Amino acid sequence: MSTKEIVIPLPEKHQKEPILLTKICPDMKKKLFICILTALFISCTSTQEKNTGISTIIDIESSIRHDTGFKVSDFGKTIRYIPLETTDDCLIGNKPIVKVLENYILIESNQRCLLFDKKDGRFISAIGHTGQDPEAYSSSFCWADEKEDYLYFTRQPNQLIKYDMKGNFCGKTEFPSPPGLASYYLITDSGIIGYYNDLNANKKFVLARFEKNGTLRDTIPSLLSQTEESLNDILNVSVIKETDTYGNWAKAGVIIINYKNDNKQIIAPNTAALWRNSGHTYFKEIFVDTIYTITNQGLSPALIFNTGKWHWPEKERTHTNGTNARIFITEVSENNLFLFFQCIKGLYSGEPVLYNGLYNKKTGETKIVKNSDAIQDDLTGFMPFKPLTISTSGEFASLIEASDIMEWTEEHPEATNNGRLSFLQHLTEDMNPVIVLVE
Asked: Beta partners for 163?
């Protein structure tokens, strides 16, 4: 194996050290293909916007000042409710993670992965299991491949375990170390891309691209500069598995690191930093206000969030003093019409404020509303809508616990006579949740 290093300097006003892109060539007889990384650390001031040549700029600074509220019709024209089948084999616990594919609904709960039919909520199968045997995985958090034929789960220290949609074990992929296991994966037809966040010891990598068999193809270096703190500066670490404070970004929980100098770091494992839309692959790094397109040539800036006076420089991402008004953009998802995102003002303050943002690609309009402000259902008159993600086929998806629905119907008994809410007539509080899809 040979390694070819290409030194790509940053623009002069941002330059601190060279950005290295490492290309791994397993066969030197093959033509050497050099991937060039365009690494732009953009603080989103008006001058920098003009210099980027990027046409799509989401103006957070202006939009957050004009809170006009959300309605479900802002997200789509139709709404559908799918009660998930309830049996002893598929009981769902509290705070599940929901993922909606083209034909399936995935629920990750209590270290189990449950598969339901998207048409009617019928339970299909439990996929795999945790444990120590050769077919077991370490975590029920999973990723579907691009054709949605298989699900991939991590197995420590360096494997992805593969199952089909019927629950059959279909093999494993083993990765070299380094870089080892990533915190998030995107499995495409052409290979596997891994995202390495601050939990990973080797922060030389932010992205690594692999062949389907796990062979390392190339890596893209971190977009983040080193923080002031090291492992020796950690005062304490706490893990919160279930929290709504930080929104969808923290759906798998958070790790809070407190440092001796009163600085802090909040890390969300399994953050969805990679996604596909309209044939393109996108990447959003934490504390970087730019969304990049991943191409064969490297990273190309595609969109900028302009946070203006509330911008949080990535080099100060652990700072607690003077950051209560700064904005941290968390998880992003999109379909052909909209880009949905959440952001937090005062991440390290005692009372962080979570916002929902919706960018309309057709009109260029951006709406940003406090998450605490209910999204009224003006399509069916049902409970407020809380978007959790966008499905791979483009619907906005949410999940409502059956007990919450029963409590709501006690206050709104007339809803059971609404033909568009006919599922209410068969619901009991001990049933599985109801999935809501808006398109």
From this structure: 151, 169
Q: Which amino acid is at 107?
A: I
**Alpha-carbon gap, residue 268 to 197, rounded angstroms:** 9
Q: How far is CA 195 from CA 19, 78, 228, 268, 273, in A?
A: 17, 34, 23, 13, 7
pLDDT tens, residue order, the chain (439 aa): 333 332 233 332 332 332 334 454 433 333 322 232 222 222 333 333 333 446 699 999 999 887 778 999 999 999 999 999 999 999 999 899 999 999 999 999 999 999 999 999 999 999 999 999 999 999 999 999 999 999 999 999 999 999 999 999 999 999 998 888 999 999 999 999 999 987 654 467 899 999 999 999 999 988 998 888 988 999 999 999 878 999 999 998 999 999 999 999 999 989 899 999 999 999 999 999 999 999 988 899 999 999 999 999 999 999 999 999 999 999 999 999 999 999 999 999 989 999 999 999 999 999 999 999 999 999 999 999 999 999 999 999 999 999 999 999 999 999 999 999 999 999 999 999 999 999 9
Distance CA 28, CA 210 (A): 17
- 8 Å CB contact between 311 and 42: no
Going from the C-alpha of 281 to that of each of 34, 142, 176, 421, 433, the distances in angstroms are 19, 18, 24, 37, 31
pTM above 0.85, yes or no: yes
Please tell me the distance from the alpha carbon of residue 19 to that of residue 123, in angstroms, as a whole number: 48
CB 37 within 8 A of CB 222: no
Q: Are 149 and 114 in contact (CB under 8 A)?
A: no
Contact 129, 142 (CB under 8 A): no
Q: Cα-flanking dihedrals φ and ψ of residue 435, to 5°? A: -90, 135
Residue with tokens 């930080």: 246
Helix (H, G, I), strand (E, B) or coil at 48: helix
